[in-house]
Amino acid sequence: MNPPTALARLCEPCAMRLLLIEDDDRIAGPLAEGLGRYGFTVDHVRTGAAGLADTGAAPDLVLLDLGLPDMDGLDVCRSLRARSAVPIIMITARGEEADRIVGLELGADDYLAKPFGVRELIARIRAVTRRAGAPAYAAAGHADVPGTRPSASGAQAVGPLTVNRRTREVHLDGRPVALTPREFDLLAFLAGDPGTVHSRQQIMDTVWDPHFFGPTKTLDAHVAALRRKLGDPGWITTARGVGFRLTVPEDRTGEAGG
Description:
Shape: globular
Keywords: DNA-binding, Phosphoprotein, Transcription, Transcription regulation
Number of domains: 2
GO molecular function, one term: phosphorelay response regulator activity
Distance between the termini: 29 Å
Strand content: 15-25%
CATH architecture of the largest domain: 3-Layer(aba) Sandwich
CATH topology of the largest domain: Rossmann fold
Protein name: Sensory transduction protein RegX3
Number of strands: 13
GO cellular component, one term: protein-DNA complex
Order of helices and strands: HEHEHEHEHEHHEEEEEHEHHEE
CATH class of the largest domain: Alpha Beta
Pfam family, one: Trans_reg_C
């Protein structure tokens, strides 16, 4: 039997409890319903104070809007991170790079700008929980990706390559690799499921935007830049006519297991 594709895995039910902190019911309602169809349990609150209240039922992941009526979502993120390592994905209409950087520096694990699709959000939820080593992800029957090692710091290792979504840092053989924000987003997306071929459209929709109308050659340019900075084109291989995948180059495969 052939292994399931990335899209097939995305459609598998996932028994996780999510805390959605979102004041707009027009967004929260359809979002909770959509997530529910994939097996997620969603607890919805409308204010930052309610999100910070100790209800006794700890969520597996927090979906946090920044534009809350009672307090800034960045302050909620700071408070949550001060007391818990729960994964946090910010969902907001604020798309400026400064907001993304501040949110990530405060401890958010990912940042998703509105509007977005439910399937993209689920893919990010699974990538974040996989990188964080969340127990709910393992309990849902998802095995660790071969060749990756999540650590307590949030860093993920693919052979000698380490990608840290929390600090947005990349190291290869222990040495830092300087990437632009978009290059990092592309590498982090591919590293979320090493070895899996991601279609060009999937990459563009997730790393850029579902409504991006620029030339698709921009993806090729970023792939070329990443290959150059990683020092070996074998890190990102091309599936002709489909897309790209992240792999450990053949001469480094002995290092994949640590």
